[in-house]
């Protein structure tokens, strides 16, 4: 249950990613959210799109990943949001301790 997990998602602008990041960190669903501007090429409704988006990396644990994904889904501005999970195979001990301590792994609030 204390295994680290990274959830990724993309957002249309800085305002929308900042909004979700603040909510999930305050609610201790993620210990940290990193985000950066990226360029994306994809097809949407049969048309090739080239846009700038923000990629967000949500650092959490197995125990808090389900409520985190629900919150991302609830607050996401996209009709079809990307919510992808990566298992972490290796992590340094001190960072893992901080991650666990910064998420809802002790008691649900």
Report what the structure shows.
The chain has 109 residues and is of the alpha+beta class. Helices cover 33% and strands 37% of the residues. It contains 3 helices and 4 strands. It has helices at residues 14-26, 62-75, 93-101; strands spanning 4-11, 32-44, 47-61, 84-87. A 4-stranded antiparallel beta sheet has the order 2-3-1-4. Strand 2 and strand 3 form a beta hairpin. The model has no long low-confidence stretch (mean pLDDT 94).
Topology readout:
Elements: E1 4-11, H1 14-26, E2 32-44, E3 47-61, H2 62-75, E4 84-87, H3 93-101
Antiparallel strand pairs: 1-3, 1-4, 2-3
Radius of gyration: 15 Å
Number of strands: 4
Distance between the termini: 17 Å
Low-confidence stretches: none
Derived structural class: alpha+beta
Level of helix content? 25-40%
Biggest sheet strand line-up: 2-3-1-4
Shape: elongated
Provide the succession of SSEs. Answer: EHEEHEH
Average pLDDT works out at 94
Number of helices: 3
Biggest β-sheet, characterized?
A: 4 strands, antiparallel
Strand content: 35-45%
Describe what is shown at a glance.
The chain is an alpha+beta fold.
Q: Which keywords apply here?
A:
109 residues; alpha+beta; 4-stranded antiparallel beta sheet; elongated
